[in-house]
Amino acid sequence: MEERRDPAAALTSIPVLKWMGMRWVDTGDPDVHVVEMDIRPDLLNLNGVPHGGVIATLIDHTGGFAAGVLTGRGGPTADLHVRYLTGTRGTTLRAEARVLRAGRQLVITETRVFDDTGKLVAIGDMSIAVSNAGAPRTEPPPD
């Protein structure tokens, strides 16, 4: 597997993901990409639950990396939508991402985030702009 698509290597080579303590979980399921992280005091908001930005970052990485790992085609996030369903005072977050559609230019993923009690904390869907989608344009676009 190429290093850029190695789930464990990505989590240790991207500083913010390493700082957040994300770890890849090999489920053996070819249709799901899973990342977990412990909920630490420095990741909480003023209400004592995981900060929304932490959850959004977990969803962005897990869903985006799922596109590359599960379809072999990845790229930058084009769009991200997060639904925060409830706070949690649990000890772990688990993000499970699946590809909903793999088109020529976009890969659409959905990520569900659970706490260690199995409670659904957030759902995120995103579009990944496929790198190298089609050949580069060699002529000007039509008027």
Question: What is shown here, in short?
Answer:
The chain contains three helices and six strands.
Q: Tell me the CATH topology.
A: Thiol Ester Dehydrase, Chain A
Briefly note the structural class of the backbone: alpha+beta
According to CATH, what is the class? Answer: Alpha Beta
Task: Find the CATH superfamily.
Answer: Hotdog Thioesterase
Q: Report on the biggest sheet.
A: 6 strands, antiparallel
Helix run count: 3
The 3D shape can be described as globular
N/C terminus separation: 43 Å
Assign a percent range to the helix content: 10-25%
Compute the gyration radius: what is it?
16 Å
How many structural domains can be distinguished in the coordinates?
1
Biggest β-sheet: strands ordered side by side in the sheet: 1-2-4-5-6-3
Rounded mean pLDDT score: 90
Q: Which percent band covers the strand fraction?
A: 25-35%
Number of strands: 6
Which consecutive residue ranges, at least 5 long each, have pLDDT under 50? none
Order of H and E elements = HHEEHEEEE
* Second rung of CATH, namely the architecture: Roll
